[in-house]
Amino acid sequence: MRKALVGFATIAAAVLAVTSAHAQQAIKIGVILAYSGQFADPSAQMDNGIKLYMKQHGDTVAGKKIELIRRDTGGIAPDIAKRLAQELIVRDNVDMLVGFALTPNALAAGDVSAQAKKFMVNMNAATAIITTKSPYMVRTSFTVPQLNQTLGSWAYNRGIRKAYTMVSDFGPGHDGEAAFHKGFKDAGGEIVGAARYPVANQDFSAFVQRAKDANADAIYIWTPGGPQPAAIGKALAERGVDPKKTKVLGQGELTSEDALKNMGEAGLGIITAFHYDYNHQSAMNAAFVQSYKDAFGRNPDMFSVGAFDLGEPARPDDDRSGDPRRHPDRLYQASGEGRRTNRQRRVRQDR
Predict the structure, then answer these.
(1) Is the pLDDT of residue 329 over 60?
(2) Most confident of 8-17, 229-238, 285-294
(3) Kind of pairing, strands 60-61 and 64-72?
(4) Residue 342 confidence (pLDDT)
(5) Exposure of 238 in the CB half-sphere (CA atoms within 13 A)
(6) 54-63, 136-145, 262-271, 305-314: which has the highest mean pLDDT?
(7) What is the spatial distance between Cα 323 and Cα 329, in angstroms, rounded to a whole number?
(8) Residue 127: which of 227, 222, 226 has the closest Cα?
(9) For position 15, what pLDDT does the model report?
(10) pLDDT at residue 13, as a whole number
């Protein structure tokens, strides 16, 4: 797994290490997100993370302006994401591609990155294989298996012996299912049933009833961000699933702040695993959360922190990249080699 994660200013500094023959007036960054549709709010949180970093650190580096060119996929739309990536590279002449809240879109853009030899930063999409699609790609978030395999073994070690799983029927949901199954079964647990539901599904009554009828010790749920977590919480309450009796487990989106507000008491007792929580007690995170709330009137989440962490401090004296249009592999190395993200420092500072 690649260790190096990158930031706007870091990448910008690497882009600036260009021969005079290729000097340019602006550093162009193509941002591809689902600004409309089912995943508009996660994408808004990501965009807020970008805005906050640039508000705090400015939109120029070494005298060059950073220009963001935003494009909307409208949801899970790999064909559109691929077309937008191609247009940004060919027509808009961007220096890099960033964004990607959703796995299918990131995979499609990854092919374009590889073919065009264009640098790409995946700020969220967490299916494990994504970064294998292009040698010029890095990720500033996490992978689904690293959370959910651990959750599976943790569940067994806490006395859970039988589990039922229900996941969203696309890449990261499949990753979550496989990882939880492995962690749980390797520890000695039994999977008594499994279901996959449509990505756009909003009525979970039948799925939850099936899970309840399995009489498992726990129900594991993988759902993406957006409106589904709250809809699942509603179905759990309506079908009489009490998390105090039947453990409800999942990845962190299931207990996001907005989801819990909409769930009410139905959210009490749900157990989730995640790589970031705005409640984490560290000086760096407290400052980040306060700045985010002041700017946008809400708390950050894992979407916004993944985008903010794109803003790793620059190394303006780093001249290893050469011309990024000719050497994107060197740009990758120069922009992140051996560094930790802001999020890692934010979470680990007080440990």
Answers:
(1) no
(2) 285-294
(3) antiparallel
(4) 46
(5) 14
(6) 136-145
(7) 10
(8) 222
(9) 52
(10) 55
104-113, 201-210, 307-316, 320-329: which range is least confident on average?
320-329
Cβ-contact 144, 168 below 8 angstroms: no
Q: Does the pLDDT at position 6 exceed 60?
A: no
Distance between CA atoms of residues 300 and 48, nearest Å: 9
- Alpha carbon of 249 to those of 162, 252, 315: distances in Å? 12, 9, 42
Ordered domains of the chain (ranges, CATH): 8-142+281-348 (3.40.50.2300), 144-273 (3.40.50.2300)
Q: Cα–Cα distances in Å, from 161 out to 131, 147, 219?
A: 34, 19, 11
Of 106, 110, 124, nearest in space to 45 by CA? 124
- Token pair recorded at residue 169: 């029927």
Distance separating alpha carbons of residues 88 and 83, to the nearest angstrom: 9
Residue linked to tokens 């950073």: 66
Q: In sequence order, which ranges of 58-133 are alpha helices (DSSP H)? A: 78-90, 103-116
316 pLDDT above the threshold of 50:
no
Residue 196 near residue 226 (C-beta atoms within 8 A): no
- Alpha helix segments (H runs only) across the chain: 8-16, 40-57, 78-90, 103-116, 144-157, 171-187, 205-213, 228-238, 257-263, 283-296, 302-308, 328-336, 342-348
**How far is CA 86 from its chain centroid?**
22
Res. 68 pLDDT band, cuts 50 70 90:
very high
Over the range 290-324, which residues count as b (16 or more CB within 10 Å of their CB) and which as e? ebbeeebeebbbbbbbbbbbbbbebbeebeebbeb
How far is 346 from 334, CA to CA, in rounded Å? 23
| Token pair listed for 251 | 């990845």
